Amino acid sequence: MANLNYKQFTLGVEEEYMVMDPNSRELKSHEQQIVHEGQKLLKDKVKAEMHQAVVEVGTDICKDIDEAYEDVANLRKNISDIASSLGFIMGAAGTHPFSHWERQLITNHARYNDIVNELQEAARSNLIFGLHVHVGMESRELANHIANSTRYFLPHVYALSTNSPFWEGRLTGYKSFRTKVFDKFPRTGIPEVFESIEAYDNYVKLLIKTNCVDNAKKIWWDLRVHPFFNTVEFRICDVPLTVDETIAIAALFQAICAKIYKLRMQNMNFIQYSRHLINENKWRASRYGLDGRLIDFGKEEEINTRVLIHELLDFVDDVVDELGSRHRLANVVKILEKGTGADRQLKVYSETNDLVQVTDFIHTQYLSNL
Known about the structure:
Layout: E1 11-20, H1 33-42, E2 46-48, E3 54-58, H2 65-85, E4 89-91, H3 110-119, H4 121-124, E5 130-136, H5 140-150, H6 154-161, E6 166-167, E7 170-171, H7 178-182, E8 188-189, H8 197-209, E9 220-221, E10 223-225, E11 231-238, H9 243-265, H10 275-288, E12 293-296, E13 301-304, H11 305-323, H12 326-338, H13 341-352, H14 355-365
Parallel strand pairs: 8-9
Antiparallel strand pairs: 1-3, 1-4, 1-5, 2-3, 5-11, 6-7, 10-11, 12-13
Helix pairs in contact: 1-2, 2-9, 5-9, 6-10, 9-11, 9-12, 11-12, 13-14
């Protein structure tokens, strides 16, 4: 097996951050000042998002997980410095604990105006913050194969990322309410299997031809073969509180891709399950995070989610040293021990009964360990 190319699995990480007023801790429009200042320093690694209280960042193409860590850490530090110089504070969570979307301004940009015009309240209320992880592929054929097979693991990794228990000042009862908000969009959720990259391309062409979308970026599934880059893009996760968690999740997605690739090179594949079955696990991950049970479809039984994530770590164990990511994946075990962002937000809330303190906690975690 000496001819395996693990170098192809480069990484790109995108995070969406919340811009807040330091006094009220409400989400606050920064009128793109943070983006404009950020672009002077970081070029196109900083972008505006649909709502003006959101800043999106994206790393360069990183050759390994340590490079990704440095890039994300620098982005968070730089954005935090710029924000505080302009009188704002930053945070990373899937939803803001108490701000209401009705009071938030939409960015004036043709693309967002189009989306709001088409999707109306579903778009205006879409005040959520996600993490997207791109894993590089040597071909689009391989990307399609890996996207098909990694669908099964989406709920497992999503459970680790759950970080949105509050919505508009209410305790939702979910560990991740963010995906419930996003479900109102078309073309979201777990994708179906595409038997070939041509089948996927034909699907996209049909949507464009019939004016469903103007380009494939309006396909907002939980994972997709990227329309323009040779990557598989994982889009299911809430943005985590800390860089360590973001990087642990990115390392896990990368390792799952590398493992499926290794199996393929041995003429093996992971069994394909239908969207309906994987959706059952996604729902459980959204509701219970790590504290629930996911279904093991091979055994046809429910299994403690933490146990399944330990099994997942065992499953990828034989590729992580090749990828150089073992030390970053160690943080997955820490998340299993101390809880996800949602668990830690809920702990603060149960101790203080105060959503402002929860929001302060989100803010203090933003640069923790950096």
